[in-house]
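Late entry, evening session. Most of the bench is empty. Finally got around to the prediction I had been postponing all week. Sequence below, unchanged from the version circulated by S.P.
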Amino acid sequence: MVVRLGRELVERGTWHIMFLDDLFTGRKGRGAGLCQAFLDNGFEFTWSCNSHPNPLDLETLRLMERAAAGRSPTASSRARSASST
């Protein structure tokens, strides 16, 4: 269902998604599975997530980064602006 919604959002021109989900990282594999689905489907939007950090492991954090979770649109915009000056 999330992948289908992701496709719809891409078609509508969405460039960033914010998840507010305390359980995103709470169950092993839940967040990682979503990240892998984003990668497998070639989604290019950025996304962020507010969740509880305790259950995170390094492998999941790296997967989240690869799936664009670590690149906020604001930070990316600042980086582009700084590099063009």
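Two things to note before I forget:
Residues 73-85 have pLDDT under 50 and may be disordered.
The longest helix spans residues 30-40.
Will write this up properly tomorrow.
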